[in-house]
Amino acid sequence: MCTLGKIAACEISFLPIQSSNANADVNKVIELIEQSGLEYSVGAMSTLVRGQKDIVFNLLEEIYAKMDEECKFVITAKISNICGCEL
After folding, report:
1. Which residue ranges make up each domain of the chain?
2. How confident is the model at residue 6 (pLDDT cuts 50, 70, 90)?
């Protein structure tokens, strides 16, 4: 049994729909991910984050709350609890 608590992996795609600067909005989301303390890997179409389940879900809430003030958007998140135990 994992002694670290529940670990989750999440693939996040952020798509600005109504935005004055879509690239800047995507970069703001990447900055939030970087500041989260989670392990992450930025890809061309999405970013994979991995870490404590509660921190992953808090990050999704933070992205929604902060970007809701900036633009209209779609977030796609795929979450898995089958990602191993070691960080």
Report:
1. 7-80
2. confident
Rg (CA), the chain: 13
Is 74 within 8 Å of 9 (Cβ atoms)? Answer: no
> pTM for the whole thing?
0.87
Domain 7-80 has CATH 1.10.510.40: no
* Integer Cα distance of 67 and 5 in angstroms: 29
Q: How confident is the model at residue 83 (pLDDT cuts 50, 70, 90)?
A: low
What is the Cα–Cα distance from 67 to 72, expressed in whole angstroms?
8
For tokens 């693939």, name the residue. Answer: 11
- Cα of 52 vs its chain's centroid, Å: 13
Task: Say how far apart CA 21 and CA 31 lie, in whole Å.
Answer: 16
Tokens found for residue 56: 């992953």
